[in-house]
Structures are given as C-alpha cells and as structure tokens.
## 1
Amino acid sequence: MNRKSMVLAGLVIALFSIAAGYVRCPEDIKIPVLLANGEVITKPCYVTVDGENVALVDDEKTAEKVMEQVKSEYKNESTVNVRIREKTDVENMDLKNGDRKPEVLTEHEAARQLVEDGSVTVETVEVVAEGKTLEYETVTTESEELQPGEKQIVQCGENGFLIETKRIVKENGNQVSEEVIDEQVIAEAVPEIVISGTYALSAPLSQMRITSGFGPRWGRMHNGVDLGMAAGSPVYAAKAGTVTHSGYSGGFGNLIKIDHGGGMETYYAHCSSLIAAEGMTVEKGQLIATVGSTGNSTGPHLHFEVRMAGEPCDPIQWIEE
Ligand SMILES: [Zn+2]
C-alpha cells in the first residue's frame, strides 16, 4: 500500500466513525433518544424537591421553568418577594434507545401537580396599603346647668383617615403573619364634645352612714335618707343655692331648705343649730347647720331630702363618691 492509499483509508475510517455515532456530544447538547414506539424525545428531566423526584418533564430547561411557574401561581400585584422553602433541583433521567416512553408532563402540568400535592412551600411577601377610618372619640363633660340625662353637643365629631401599609407573609396562599410597617395619617379625627347634665351633690356630712333609706317605711313614705352622726357634727350644703327656709318646722325640727334652681331643693332636718340664715346664698360644701335630734326624732341624725319640682327623690343617686 502506498502513502496515498494509506491517507485515503484513514479518512474513510474517520468518516465512518462519525457516521456510526462514536463522537461524544458535550453534556449541554440534547441527545435525541429513539423510543420503542418509534418516537424521538430529547433528555427527560426530573424536578426534585429535597432530593426527591416529584415530576418528570421533557428536558432540563422545562424543569428549570417549572419552579418559576409554581412561584407565579402565588404571585399577585402586591407580591414583593417569593421563594420556595425546600431545596429544589433538576436531575436528568437516563434513557436508552428502545426504552418505553416515560410519563412526561408539560411545564404547566408539572407546576399544577406541585401546587396541588403541596410538595413545596411557597412563601410570598406582599406589601399592601389600605385606607382606614380613624373613629372619633367622644369627650363628655358634666354640667349642673343641664338636667340629668340631658345632653348638649358643643362640637361635632368627625372621623379621620389614615393609610396603613402592611407586610403580609403567606405560605401557599395562606396568611401566616401580618405586620404594619407604615401609617400615614391623612386626616386626624375630630372629637365630639358633649356636655351631660348632672345634679352632682356632695355629701352633706363628712361620713355617709345611712341608718334608714329612701322609700316606704312603716306603712308610710320616707321622703329622704337618715344619716347617723354625733350631735353637733357639721352639716354642709350639698350644692350651691339660696337658703329658702332656716327655722323650726314641725316634725322636721330645725330645718334648712336650699333652692338650687331648675326646680331642685334640698332639706336638712332635725338639726341642733342652724347656721345659714334664710335668703343667704351658699356654696357647695358650705357649713349650714349642726346635727341634732329636734322634731320627730329618736336620736341624733340628719334627715336629708332632695326634691325635684316638689317631688321627693332618692338623693343617693346624685351624691358624688
Ligand atoms: Zn328621715
């Protein structure tokens, strides 16, 4: 064999080798595989979660896209971050010529399967801003100028408004935590200011020891309360007003009556001495008499009455603690 024919033979062998498939392809090149049913597929690839095969797709590129697809299932316009908790990967499946066609899913099918069987935990972080009403408060001040139960609104309340920004963390679409990260007050609430009527009486004695209450007693009406106290103890005006009576008055004994205006009067009976004189203007808490047992009385005590338009009422309801 001469040199020319040797070169020619080498070339023929080389060409034959390529045609016979002896040349190695680099890893990233898809190698077509001929299946038993005559179909040709490329390189099927597993999607793995924590090392376990969970879905089989056509190729590596598709496998890589499955996780993006899974994440997008939980994304919305408020999502700022999304991650999968588990370690996910892709792993090529070895196929040989003549193998049976494996069960291969499309990218979408594989993603749906992972979402439905819950084999991955998709954590999303959403930032949501929402408007909130700031309810106004009601501030009530009491006034003796008004009748009890009567109300006067001196300033109308107005609700305010704020924008609250929340950071919400969800797992597979279920909220697991929520945190307010910003609050922007657009309008402050304006409080409602109300004046509420009260008669607010102060105690007529330094101690309130009720020995007999208001109401029916021994078949007749007890028009006031009896307050036990040693003779000579000071008696105070329960509310500011004008003394309309200061003198002896039958069963009341020594009696002081004070007119407080608005149809309200207070009576202080069985006193030992009378200090405030008729026609005098007295302040709330002013000394007006001393405790005694004059008139129809069995021992030293103060008989204290409150009358509204002449009608006796239980005074205890208006005495301040
Ligand atoms: Zn009495």
## 2
Amino acid sequence: MKILLTGGAGYIGSHVLLSILEQGHKVVVIDDLSTGNKNLIPEKIELINCNINNEEKIGKVLQQQKFDILLHFAGFIKVEESVQNPKKYFINNTENAIKLFETCYKHDLKNIIFSSTAAAYGNPINNASRKENSE
Ligand SMILES: NC(=O)c1ccc[n+]([C@@H]2O[C@H](COP(=O)([O-])OP(=O)(O)OC[C@H]3O[C@@H](n4cnc5c(N)ncnc54)[C@H](O)[C@@H]3O)[C@@H](O)[C@H]2O)c1
C-alpha cells in the first residue's frame, strides 16, 4: 500500500512508521515538527514539513501522488495543557484535523484511520496495581 502518515515524527507516529516500513509499504510523512523529532524519520522517507491545515501544500502532494490510506497521528496530547488552554487543542485536534480530512476528501483519499486520543480509557487497573491496592 501507499500510505500518507501524519505525525510520523511523534511518539505513536514514529512507531507506526517503523511498522509500515517493516511490512514493505510505501509512505510519505506530514509533520510540522511542533512536538516531533525529525531524527525519528529515516532519511530516505519523504517528509512534508507543514501543518495538517495547509491545504495548498498537502493538496499538491495529493495531486502528484495517489495514496491508499491516511493514517492520522498529528495532534496535541497533554491533558493538563488541554484543560488550561482548550482553544489551542480545539484548533489543532479538531479544526486542523477537519481541514486535513476535507483536503483528502477533495482529492479522493477517503480511507482514514484516526488515532483520536490517549485519554479515553481512564487509568486501567492492571494486576500490579490491583496487588498494590489490596495491600
Ligand atoms: N501517546 C499515547 O499513548 C497515545 C495513545 C493513543 C492515542 N494517541 C494519540 O495519538 C496522537 C499522537 O500522540 P503522540 O503521543 O504520538 O504525540 P506526539 O506529540 O509525540 O506526536 C504528535 C506529532 O504530530 C505533530 N503535529 C502536531 N500537530 C500537528 C499539526 N497541526 N500539523 C502537523 N504535525 C503536527 C508533532 O510535531 C508530532 O510529531 C494523538 O492524537 C494522541 O491523542 C496517543
């Protein structure tokens, strides 16, 4: 497959990138390096260094190359900061993501996997913490 990956310089995205490469797929990364690290992207991989809301730049990429799927991992993730500054998070995680999806849709890229949030599941009780709680 040919995959368009956002947030490939981040924690989750860079691991997904390695997995994609191990499985022999082709990939192009979009990341503005706002929290990511360029060194996590192998040199041979094309990096589009821009915000996901950049319709002009991403539109050009989608005109020139055909992708099977978008994997979207570009977002802000700090829970505490999101409570202090919800607007910053709404703009990036909601508005910018919608803009990206609209750009993809316009160029007929309609298969999307969206890693929505790390904060959906609360604090799971695993065997170690269960043991601690019972002591
Ligand atoms: N870390 C986790 O345990 C976890 C678990 C489940 C889901 N997620 C979700 O995965 C996504 C990524 O999380 P992470 O932990 O990898 O964060 P991260 O900060 O390490 O990575 C985010 C990447 O996206 C880039 N980015 C952010 N906004 C951008 C924008 N507007 N345009 C272009 N690039 C942008 C950053 O530069 C960075 O490389 C988030 O949506 C998060 O909620 C994370």
## 3
Amino acid sequence: MKAIDRQYRTGWVGWLRDLANAGGTGGLNWHVHAAQSLQRWMPTRELIAQFLAQVQPTSSNLVLIGCSAGWMLPTPWLARFKHIDVYDIDPLVPLLFGIRHARTLRAQGVTVTYHRSDAIAGLPTLLQRHPDACWWFDNVLGQLGFRLGDEDMAERQLRQLKSMLKGREWGSLHDVYSGPVDSLLALPVCEAVQWTRLDDLPQEQAQVNLNKLNMPHADAAQALLGKLNATGVWHDHATQEVFEKGTLTTMLPWAFKPRYWHWLQAAWVRP
Ligand SMILES: C[S@@+](CC[C@H](N)C(=O)[O-])C[C@H]1O[C@@H](n2cnc3c(N)ncnc32)[C@H](O)[C@@H]1O
C-alpha cells in the first residue's frame, strides 16, 4: 500500500527547484550521480549495512528522513519494520524509492507512506505526529548548512536536535568532513573507525576517543584526514555535536567522487 501526502506546498517554482537539486542536497542531480556511483560506493554501502545490522530498534514504525531513493540503504534492514513514513523534499522520491526498495518491502508486508516535506524545519510537528516511531536521518543533516546558506545557523540547529529527540529512539548517518584526496597516492582503504566526543568544550579544547585512544579533537580530526590522504581544503559539515557527548559513533569513509571523499558518522541512540 502506497500513500503520498503532499502538505509541503512550494508552488511550481519550488517544486521544479527541488526536482532539479533539492536545495543543493538531492534531486535529479543527486540521482544521476548516485546511479553512476553505486559500484564505487559499494564498500561504504557495505559498512552502512553492517552498522545497521547491529541496530535493533524496538519500534516497528520507522520515520525515514532525507532518504532520497535510498541509494545507500539496505532493503533487509528496512524490511524489519511494519510501516515506514518517508520524508523528503524531492518530488522524485516516491518513484525512485519505490523502485529501489518499496516493491520488495510491499511483498514482505511493509507499508510505506511518502511525505514531501521539510522534515528538519517541521521536526517538532512530526515528533507529535509519530509518537511511537523510531527515526533515521539518512545522510541529510550534513547538508543543512548548504540548504540554509549559513553554517553557524546550521550548527546551532544541529546542536539542538538531540534535545528535541530526547526520549525517542533515533539514529543518523551524516557528513562530518569532505574534501579532495591526493591523486598521486593510492586510493584510501575504506575502513570504519570508532569516534566518541568526550566533552562539550569548543573544538580547540575538546577531547575525543578515537579507536580507544583519547586525544585532542584536532589530532583526531587530523588522523581521520590522514587515513584518506587528504589534500587541499576540507569542508567541516558542522555536525560534530549532533550526538550527545559520550555517544559511541562509527566513522565511515565514502568515495563520493573518485578523488573527493567524505567522512560519514553514524550512531543509534536509545532513550
Ligand atoms: C545527500 S541526499 C541523501 C541521500 C540518501 N541518503 C541516499 O542514500 O540516497 C540528501 C537528501 O535529503 C533530502 N533533504 C534535504 N533537506 C531536507 C529536509 N529539510 N527535509 C527533508 N528532506 C531533505 C534531499 O532531497 C535529498 O534527497
């Protein structure tokens, strides 16, 4: 059973803009790049599948935010739910998520409802609408800065998110850093590392536990970039404080383009 809810009214211009690039975070641009990159993304998709396989949500309802066509999502993990509410601003999502996942899900008795909606701005309302669901932000939070056009505002909003989600079961996969890798060196190895922020101090003073070793945040960030043979200027996606300090997170390398990589962060939070 497929239902589509169209409460996000942007007019034709907004609809076309979201169709094309969804505020620089998705749309047709994204789908073409994703479809052409699936093979290169395979190691990261496997790391995501391994991460999600360990997540055992207690709710049978999932609110899935910013999943696009679910290019990086494993269908078997989605199949553990009875009902999925998909929220994305991209008008192509019902069609493409339907082709990649929903047909199989339907055959397994999972129902999917699509909402074309700004789920970050509308989060307080959505939390009321779905009191019993668990939540997965699917590589959407790291693009908030692009969408708002203001990194400081994005950082503030992202820091507040965990308070809004208090008492809920939720997780997120999001960009932390992205940038060019050295084209003269061999391509980096796609290996996950564990990362825990140990305090709420500003980054220059903060301590992080990286693969069981405590160190200053700056050293941990350098170690991550070093693993990917980073070169040039890297972008910080302002997502450092999405999770509460002390949350064990998994950092996953992602060959977004052959020589332009990202570090993604994933964690699942229980109330
Ligand atoms: C980088 S893409 C995510 C890709 C997706 N996880 C996948 O595997 O294909 C970001 C997605 O988030 C959506 N998005 C961006 N901001 C959003 C918002 N405020 N509310 C809902 N969806 C949003 C975009 O339309 C896009 O589909």
